[in-house]
Write a structure and sequence with these properties.
The chain is built from five helices and nine strands; from the N terminus they run E-E-E-E-H-E-E-H-H-H-E-E-E-H. It is an alpha+beta fold. Helices cover 34% and strands 24% of the residues. It has helices at residues 40-53, 79-96, 104-110, 119-134, 194-209, and strands at residues 6-7, 14-19, 22-29, 32-37, 64-65, 68-69, 150-157, 168-175, 178-186.
Length: 210
């Protein structure tokens, strides 16, 4: 290794090199090396120095090290700006669910992360916006009809919620062709089969009809 690197007094597997205001760090664990620093040029120089003296394979950006998964983020992103814009978007989508019932469950799920959204939540909310933009004429249409027949539909998605593995019940009730009631909700307990999930969804629909 380059002689300009200094071995740490507190950890013999840790080596550092300082140049002006920048630093590069090399941490060694058996035959794995973690190289990081405040200057991309110093990091490249350290890699080049190691390649000249040892047979080293560069695995690229850090993903796992000694059993720890590492996820990076861009320091140019302001999380407060993302949270504010996310909250405003979800508030508008919640208002829109009055006439667009098909987005109720998606918006309800996204609203649970109003105060701590992640990039995946922001991406999911933008997918809802793209769906609305591509299908602007869909919505709740109140039609006039002399025939007053009550029709109901129900369904369930077995074990769809990834955290609790609870199923989702859904139903809608129509008076002739007019949608008058609808609901999507996680079931209270875990259904051990798709049949049980369907029966619970049917029960919820029957209660609403009654």
């Amino acid at each position: 290794m380059d002689s300009s690197f200094k071995q740490s007094r507190f950890d013999y597997s840790l080596f550092t090199k300082k140049v002006d205001q920048h630093i590069v760090v090399i941490l060694i664990y058996v035959d794995d090396l973690l190289i990081t620093g405040s200057s991309i040029e110093l990091i490249y120089e350290a890699k080049h120095s190691l390649h000249q003296q040892f047979k080293v394979k560069d695995l690229g950006e850090l993903g796992y090290f000694i059993g720890i998964e590492v996820a990076g983020y861009s320091s140019t992103e302001d999380p407060l700006v993302d949270i504010t814009s996310y909250q405003k978007l979800i508030q508008k989508l919640l208002y829109l669910t009055v006439t667009r019932p098909e987005i109720c469950y998606a918006v309800q799920s996204l609203s649970k992360f109003m105060h701590a959204p992640k990039r995946s939540h922001i991406d999911a909310s933008l997918r809802v916006v793209r769906y609305l933009k591509n299908a602007p004429r869909l919505g709740v249409h109140l039609k006039r009809s002399l025939v007053h027949s009550l029709v109901a539909f129900c369904d369930s998605d077995w074990g769809d919620f990834p955290v609790t593995r609870r199923s989702i019940s859904g139903y809608l009730v129509k008076l002739r062709d007019t949608l008058i009631s609808w609901k999507f909700k996680k079931q209270h307990i875990v259904s051990r089969s798709s049949a049980k999930a369907e029966y619970r969804s049917m029960t919820t629909a029957v209660v609403e009809i009654t």
